[in-house]
Amino acid sequence: MNIYLDLFLSFFKIGLFTIGGGYAMIPIISSTVIDKGWISEEMLINFIGIAESTPGPFAVNLGTFIGFEQAGLLGVLCTSLGLFLPSFIIILLIFYVAKKALNNAIVQDAMTMIKPVIPALIITAFITIAISSFTFISGTTRTFNPFNVICTALCFVVLRKAKKVHPILIIIASAIFGIIFYGFIFKV
Predict the structure, then answer these.
(1) Amino acid 20: pLDDT
(2) Which residue, 23, 29, 17, 6, is CA-closest to 90?
(3) Between helices 58-101 and 41-53, what is the axis angle to 10°?
(4) The pLDDT value given to residue 186
C-alpha cells in the first residue's frame, strides 16, 4: 500500500475509534505505528514527550511527528487529516441532526431550562476561584490574603479603563509581581 494512503487510513481509524482525547489515543497509536514498523518504541516515547511540550492538540502533534518521520511534509498532511476528518465529519452530522431537532418543542423547552444553569456554573466557578485566590492555605487553615484582593482590583480597573492593554500583558505583569512579592518579600 502507498505510504501516504496507509498513514491517512491508519490515523483516520485512530481518530474515528478513539474517544476521550489525545491521551486515550496513545495505546492505539502505539500499537499501530510500532506494529507497522514505522518507529521504535523509544522514538514513540520521545515523540510523546515532545508532543506534550508543544502547543496544540496532543494527538495531532504526535501524528505530525510520526507523519514527518515516515514521509516528510506530505506525511504530516496525511496523519493530520486522518486525525482531524473523523471529528469534523461527526460534528457536521451532529449539526445536521441538531439543526432539525432545534425546531422541536421539547428540545426548545429543554434549551430554555438549560440557560439558567450556565450563569450558575460560571458564578460557582468564580466563587471557587475567588476563595482560593484571596486566601492562603497553611495546613488546614485558610487566611485572608489582602495582597491578592488588591491585585485583583487593580487588574480589573486596568482592564476596564485602559482598553488597549492586552490581557496577556496583565498576566505577565501579575506573574512578575507574584515572583517578587512571594519569592522575595513574603515567602509563603
Answers:
(1) 65
(2) 17
(3) 60
(4) 64
